[in-house]
């Protein structure tokens, strides 16, 4: 399967779940137009409390739709947008990408992957046990975060369901994703 965008979502307020819409507009250096996390500096409330001048490395949240499938099979009621993602994908191993990988979405938009979403208690507020379901352990015992990736908008453009995704990798050495 060729990598594809299956859904896009946004929320003007700091709600956990985002509304699925036909298309979103990505703005270079800012994020998703009309989304609460739009901006050059950090917008996530806990990070704003810590230091509101931090750069916003979490402008766009992406989740692979295959995670929704896995969680649904385990009895969770999740779908596009319910875990707060702006872009849902299929056919691409988002978690396996290196830091700095670029996703070319549709005709014009480019999102650069900055790191992993750190699962938080909001997942359990949505549905009990969801936080644990998106965490795991690597073979070496280190924590595995599977709740999607975060990125910044390098080139703006409209993105909608059905848009193709093309990946370009940064020059080696490739750095693994860490939580941002």
Q: Care to describe what's here?
A:
The protein is globular. It has helices spanning 45-50, 65-73, 122-126, 130-133; strands at 4-10, 19-21, 23-27, 31-32, 60-64, 87-90, 102-105, 109-116, 135-137, 143-145, 149-155, 157-160, 165-168. It has one domain: PK beta-barrel domain-like (M1 Pyruvate Kinase, Domain 3), CATH 2.40.33.20. The mean pLDDT is 95. It has 180 residues and is α+β, with helices and mostly antiparallel strands. The two termini are 29 Å apart. Helix content is 13%, strand content 33%. The longest helix is centred in the middle third of the chain and has 9 residues, at 65-73. A hairpin with a 3-residue loop joins strand 7 and strand 8 (109-116). The protein has 4 helices and 13 strands. The strands form 3 sheets. It has an 8-stranded mixed sheet. A 3-stranded antiparallel sheet has the order 4-3-12, with no helix packed on it. It has a two-stranded antiparallel ribbon with strand order 9-10.
Write a concise keyword list for the protein shown above.
180 residues; alpha+beta; M1 Pyruvate Kinase, Domain 3; 3-stranded antiparallel sheet; 13 strands; 13% helix
Mean pLDDT: 95
The largest pleated sheet is described as: 8 strands, mixed
How would you write the strand order of the largest sheet?
Answer: 2-1-6-5-11-8-7-13
Q: Termini distance? A: 29 Å
Number of strands: 13
State the name of the first-level CATH class: Mainly Beta
Number of domains: 1
Percent range for β-strand residues = 25-35%
Label the CATH architecture.
Beta Barrel
Fraction of residues in H or I helices: 10-25%
What general form does the structure show?
A: globular
Low-confidence stretches: none
N-to-C SSE string, H for helix and E for strand? EEEEHEHEEEHHEEEEE
User: How would you name the CATH homologous superfamily?
Assistant: PK beta-barrel domain-like
Q: By helix and strand content, what is the structural category?
A: alpha+beta
Annotated CATH topology: M1 Pyruvate Kinase, Domain 3
């Amino acid at each position: 399967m060729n990598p594809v965008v299956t859904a896009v979502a946004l929320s003007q307020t700091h709600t956990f779940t985002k509304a699925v819409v036909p298309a979103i507009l990505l703005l270079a250096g800012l994020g998703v137009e009309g989304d609460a996390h739009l901006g050059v500096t950090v917008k996530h409330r806990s990070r704003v409390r810590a230091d509101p001048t931090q750069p916003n490395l979490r402008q766009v949240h992406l989740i692979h739709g295959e995670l929704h499938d896995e969680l649904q099979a385990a009895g969770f009621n999740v779908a596009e947008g319910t875990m707060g993602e702006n872009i849902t994908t299929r056919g691409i191993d988002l978690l396996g990408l290196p830091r700095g990988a670029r996703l070319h979405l549709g005709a014009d938009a480019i999102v650069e992957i900055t790191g992993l979403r750190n699962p938080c208690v909001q997942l359990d507020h949505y549905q009990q046990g969801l936080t644990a379901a998106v965490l795991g352990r690597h073979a070496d015992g280190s924590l595995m975060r599977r709740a999607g990736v975060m990125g910044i908008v390098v080139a703006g453009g409209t993105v909608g369901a059905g848009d193709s995704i093309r990946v370009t990798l940064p020059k080696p050495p490739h750095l693994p994703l860490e939580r941002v």
